[in-house]
């Protein structure tokens, strides 16, 4: 039996990138960084990469607030956007829905749980928008390396902002590098004043990439939707691929198109794993 004060949640994922989803529309909730840390902790809490809070929106079907498992609040999450779009489509009975985030208003088309397409908006390549700590005229490859000066292990990443900051290192084999070791060093490198999501990308054809990501504030994840968008536009911008690619992530494929209108379209699945309730004292600030 559930107590009226308990807080319902959903556990969802997009290609294994997983989320605790709270609904603050009927009952306002205030999430402190330590709440997100506790919920995200796979040993102490439910365990997830991000905590997502659904809020009411004046402009869209729903507003989505995003917290990384380290408690930091961020502006974009591609995989969670598909999850929230799926819920909004089920609630409204419409296949075309909109999701507002702190990065902007995103339109979504839901053709069932396995084919959700999000218009992720326009990428930004300007160093100040990424942001980088110092001017770079060309962000297709910025001066940054890991390893010995004369034989770097990883070097010259592309940098791009797709609602959040990304650096993409081009490699011959995404599995040949210890991303779990280099990821935290690069995420916190002083060149990234807001930290960054760090990816290894391997071009496998004109229409396909392999990608592994160390996420800012979450670590190694099975999939990162915004990283797939960032890698796809960065690869096309370097002339390595066409503008329509399949991005193979450890959790499965995402289909990315950098459309002629400069918007990025991301298509993939979303899954509801289970629903549950949190005890009222789980959140450090009492539910409002
Ligand atoms: N998993 C997400 C990205 C979540 C936010 C990211 N870690 C950041 O700090 O910017 C995705 O699917 O895009």
TrEMBL record:
The first-level EC class reads isomerase
Q: Which UniProt keywords apply?
A: Amino-acid biosynthesis, Cytoplasm, Isomerase, Lysine biosynthesis
Please provide, in alphabetical order, the Gene Ontology terms of the cellular component aspect for this entry.
cytosol
Q: Where is this site: Could be important to modulate the pK values of the two catalytic cysteine residues?
A: 166, 215
Q: Where would you find the membrane-spanning parts of this chain? A: none
Pathway(s) it belongs to: Amino-acid biosynthesis; L-lysine biosynthesis via DAP pathway; DL-2,6-diaminopimelate from LL-2,6-diaminopimelate: step 1/1
Q: Name one GO biological process term.
A: lysine biosynthetic process via diaminopimelate
Q: Principal place where this protein is found?
A: cytoplasm
Listed under catalytic activity are: (2S,6S)-2,6-diaminopimelate = meso-2,6-diaminopimelate
Q: Give the matching InterPro entries.
A: DAP_epimerase_AS, DAP_epimerase_DapF
Q: Where does substrate bind?
A: 17, 50, 68, 78-79, 164, 197, 215-216, 225-226
> Which Gene3D superfamilies does the annotation name?
Diaminopimelate Epimerase, Chain A, domain 1
Q: Write the Enzyme Commission number(s) for this entry.
A: 5.1.1.7
List the Gene Ontology MF annotations in alphabetical order.
Answer: diaminopimelate epimerase activity
List locations, semicolon-separated. Answer: Cytoplasm
Superkingdom per UniProt: Bacteria
The UniProt function text for this chain reads:
Catalyzes the stereoinversion of LL-2,6-diaminopimelate (L,L-DAP) to meso-diaminopimelate (meso-DAP), a precursor of L-lysine and an essential component of the bacterial peptidoglycan.
Subunit comment for this entry?
A: Homodimer.
Protein family according to the UniProt entry: Belongs to the diaminopimelate epimerase family.
List the protein's name: Diaminopimelate epimerase
Q: What is the lineage of its organism?
A: Bacteria, Pseudomonadati, Pseudomonadota, Alphaproteobacteria, Hyphomicrobiales
């Amino acid at each position: 039996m559930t107590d009226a004060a308990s807080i319902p949640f959903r556990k969802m994922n997009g290609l294994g990138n997983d989320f605790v989803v709270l609904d603050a529309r009927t009952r306002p909730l205030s999430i402190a960084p330590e709440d997100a840390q506790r919920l995200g902790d796979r040993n102490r809490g439910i365990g997830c990469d991000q905590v997502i809070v659904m809020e009411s929106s004046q402009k869209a079907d729903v507003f989505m607030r995003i917290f990384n498992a380290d408690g930091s609040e961020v502006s974009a999450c591609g995989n969670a956007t598909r999850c929230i779009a799926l819920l909004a489509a089920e609630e409204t009975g419409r296949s075309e829905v909109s999701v507002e985030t702190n990065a902007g208003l995103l339109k979504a088309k839901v053709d069932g749980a396995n084919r959700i397409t999000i218009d992720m908006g326009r990428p930004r390549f300007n160093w100040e928008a990424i942001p980088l700590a110092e001017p770079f005229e060309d962000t297709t490859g910025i001066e940054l390396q890991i390893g010995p000066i004369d034989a770097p292990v990883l070097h010259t990443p592309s940098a791009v902002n797709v609602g959040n900051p990304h650096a993409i290192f081009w490699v011959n084999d995404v599995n040949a590098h210890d991303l779990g070791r280099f990821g935290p060093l690069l995420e916190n490198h002083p060149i990234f004043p807001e930290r960054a999501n760090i990816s290894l990308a391997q071009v496998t054809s004109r229409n396909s990439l392999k990608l592994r990501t160390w996420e800012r504030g979450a670590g190694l994840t099975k999939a990162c939707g915004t990283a797939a968008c960032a890698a796809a536009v960065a690869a096309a911008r370097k002339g390595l691929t066409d503008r329509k690619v399949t991005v193979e992530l450890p959790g499965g494929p995402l289909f990315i198109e950098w459309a002629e209108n400069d918007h990025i379209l991301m298509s993939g699945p979303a899954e509801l794993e289970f629903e549950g309730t949190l005890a009222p004292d789980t959140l450090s600030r009492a539910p409002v």
